[in-house]
Design a protein that fits this description.
By secondary structure, the chain is of the alpha+beta class. The chain has three domains: 25-81 and 168-256, Gyrase A, domain 2 (2-Layer Sandwich); 83-164, Aminomethyltransferase beta-barrel domains (Alpha-Beta Plaits, 2-Layer Sandwich), CATH 3.30.70; 307-390 and 392-396, Aminomethyltransferase beta-barrel domains (Elongation Factor Tu (Ef-tu), domain 3), CATH 2.40.30.110. It contains ten helices and 21 strands. The protein has helices spanning 36-41, 62-71, 91-98, 146-157, 178-186, 188-191, 231-242, 254-259, 295-304, 392-395; strands at 46-50, 53-58, 73-77, 83-87, 111-113, 116-117, 123-125, 128-133, 136-140, 162-164, 169-174, 198-203, 206-211, 220-225, 247-249, 308-315, 328-331, 334-345, 350-358, 367-372, 375-382. The strands form five sheets. The protein has a six-stranded mixed beta sheet with strand order 12-13-14-11-3-15, sandwiched between helices. It has a six-stranded antiparallel barrel with strand order 16-19-18-17-20-21. A hairpin with an 8-residue loop joins strand 13 and strand 14 (220-225). The chain is globular. The protein starts with 35 loop residues before the first helix and ends with a helix. Residues 1-16 have low confidence and may be disordered.
């Protein structure tokens, strides 16, 4: 009889070859910021793609960069925060339609953290809005194509507005020594800015708009470069002035933003989530006089209560790395949700993060099981933010 054919043995997952992410092709369709060459020269070791643009991820160990942010001053290329400009006679009316937040009291020269929602109340983006003139606004975007959405809304709105992308490329200057650096660069005009206000100015002839904002919950500023051809000049000028303050370029710190309760669009919220699920109901003004997209749905969700909640969690065990996928969450042996962001906080000496779970399971103190790639871990629901709930640090 012929010998039986042997089936090939399957390789175990632990011994399978890890895919080299560097093999993912890039090409000219992806944008490079005005600071891209400067980030390369500074030794950036990794980039991700955000709003079709390269975003520097890190130059050094992320924990080292985290401690530097807490003690000194860090420079981030965040030109991936591509802006959309709304201008025209009906600019304010259009912005009121686009966002659930009431902008009547937003002054010229002031910024607001806002949401953009769809008809179902789903979150399409969570930009920082700047009011440059009575009827002219910029919105600095998270990672989704709101330029296209805004153009579509404008077409059907009957309002007289022009929607475009301005020449505006932000750099973030963040950390406890950032105010002293801003004093050296710009003087009291900038250092006297209240939290979330901004002013146009220039540095060595480079036009910029400086805002009192950031993605760190530390003292911080954003320098919106208004001439893309001057990217290297602005980068070098800030780095030179920052030497006495031990400035260094870093990537955005997920450790610090999770400690602060800051959410990352695409991870912690998407269009499948509404503001009440992710504790952003404060950004929905259901009583504002003008209508907005998603109003009826958001009123219903508020009246009924959200079916899910984004809860703060502490995860037991050894320090974890930043999650690359949304880990499953179980309770009492039943799948109930997912971890959206999680990381080890060196300062708290705890694994912290967020998990989206049904509202009936979101009470403080509830125990969960997180299916971590290295094995199940217990977790408990806790209050968030984990540090400085009153945001006293960035306002200082």
């Amino acid at each position: 009889m012929p010998a039986k054919k042997q089936r090939p043995r399957r390789k175990s997952a632990s011994k399978s070859k890890v895919y080299d992410m560097a093999l993912i092709q890039r090409g000219a369709r992806l944008r490079r910021s005005p600071f891209f060459d400067s980030t390369l020269k500074a030794g950036c070791k990794s980039y991700t793609v955000y709003n079709h643009t390269f975003l520097p991820s890190y130059y050094d160990d992320p924990v080292t960069e985290y401690w530097h942010l807490l003690k000194h001053v860090a420079l981030w290329d965040v030109a991936v925060e591509r802006n959309v400009e709304i201008r025209g006679p009906d600019g304010l009316d259009f912005m009121q339609l686009l966002t659930p937040r009431d902008l009547e009291k937003c002054r010229v020269g002031q910024g607001k953290y806002v949401l953009i929602t769809d008809d179902a109340g789903g979150i399409l983006n969570d930009p920082v809005l700047l009011r440059l003139e009575e009827n002219r606004f910029w919105i600095a975007l998270a990672d989704s194509d709101i330029l296209l959405w805004a153009k579509g809304v404008a077409r059907g709105s009957g309002l007289d507005v022009t929607i475009s992308e301005p020449d505006a490329s932000p750099l973030q200057v963040q950390g406890p020594k950032s105010k002293a650096l801003m004093a050296d660069l710009f003087g009291e005009k900038v250092t006297a800015l209240p939290y979330y206000f901004f002013t146009p100015t220039e540095l060595d002839g480079i036009p910029v708009l400086v805002t009192r904002t950031g993605w760190t919950a530390e003292v911080g500023y954003e320098l919106y470069l208004l001439d893309a051809s001057r990217g290297e000049d602005l980068w070098n000028a800030v780095m030179k002035a920052g030497k006495p303050y031990n400035i260094r370029p870093t990537g955005p710190s997920d450790i610090r933003r999770i400690e602060a309760g800051i959410l990352n669009y695409g991870a912690d919220m998407t269009m499948e989530n509404n503001p009440y699920e992710v504790d952003l109901g404060r950004l929905v003004d259901l009583d504002k006089s003008s209508d907005f997209i998603g109003r009826a749905a958001l009123q219903r969700i508020k009246d009924e209560g959200p079916k899910r909640k984004l809860a703060g969690i502490e995860i037991s065990g050894e320090p974890i790395g930043f999650n690359m996928t949304k880990w499953p969450v179980e309770r009492r042996g039943r799948p109930i949700g997912r971890v959206t962001s999680a990381i080890y906080s060196p300062r708290l000496k705890k694994n912290i993060g967020y998990a989206i779970v049904p509202s009936e399971h979101a009470d403080l103190g509830n125990e969960l099981i997180v299916l971590h790639p290295d094995g199940p871990r217990t977790a408990v629901i806790v209050k968030k933010p984990f540090i400085d709930p009153g945001k006293e640090i960035p306002k200082s």
